[in-house]
Amino acid sequence: MQRSLRRLRLATACLVVACTPGDTGPSNVLVVSVVEVSPPSATVVLGSTLQLAAVGRTSSGVTVTGRAITWSTTNPAVASVSATGLVTGVAIGGPVTIRATVDGVAGSASIAVTPVPVAQVAVEPSQVTLLVGQAQQFQATAFGSGGQPLTGRTVTWTSDDPTIATVGTTGTVIAVAPGGPVTIRATIE
């Protein structure tokens, strides 16, 4: 009997030592104190996706596994989030807070949605001959890496020799003196 009681005390001592105070609740279940979302902040290109990850931890930093994670967004019109933490850029804007909740404890990430980057700019007409005093309207179109036209971008126009041909802020070129050729550039982003 004495030997059995000693084994029981030893087993109880091992159970008490294995758990850090504050990490467990009733029935020695690990209690989530903080939820870490990674990355904590990021940008997503409009129409693209980003996978977030969330980890629940106890107050002493022990990882809690096997718990359900609920994802939510503060602005689904700008950045949506799936049940698995996949964020989609819906509209340019932000930052939007994406929350991951585990056992009622929430962690968050800050997400901004950016425009599709410009990969190429096309200028029309590509070549023109003007007499002094004549004007020609040029158009610039931005394209993404997939060849899709991009709208709503600011164009900056420049002439490499404004003594021969000037260009206005809207792309109107005016021949001011004989000479050339003159390169007219449209820069977008």
Protein model, in words:
The protein is mostly beta strands. The chain has one helix spanning 2-18; strands at residues 34-38, 41-45, 49-51, 53-57, 63-64, 70-73, 79-81, 86-89, 93-102, 105-114, 120-124, 135-137, 139-143, 149-150, 155-159, 165-167, 172-175, 184-188. The protein contains one helix and 18 strands. It has a four-stranded mixed sheet, with no helix packed on it. It has a three-stranded antiparallel sheet with strand order 1-4-5, with no helix packed on it. The protein has a three-stranded antiparallel sheet with strand order 3-8-7, with no helix packed on it. The chain is rod-shaped, with a radius of gyration of 31 Å. The chain starts with a helix and ends with a strand.
Q: What is the strand and helix layout of this fold?
A:
Elements: H1 2-18, E1 34-38, E2 41-45, E3 49-51, E4 53-57, E5 63-64, E6 70-73, E7 79-81, E8 86-89, E9 93-102, E10 105-114, E11 120-124, E12 135-137, E13 139-143, E14 149-150, E15 155-159, E16 165-167, E17 172-175, E18 184-188
Parallel strand pairs: 2-10
Antiparallel strand pairs: 1-4, 3-8, 4-5, 6-9, 7-8, 9-10, 11-13, 12-17, 13-14, 15-18, 16-17
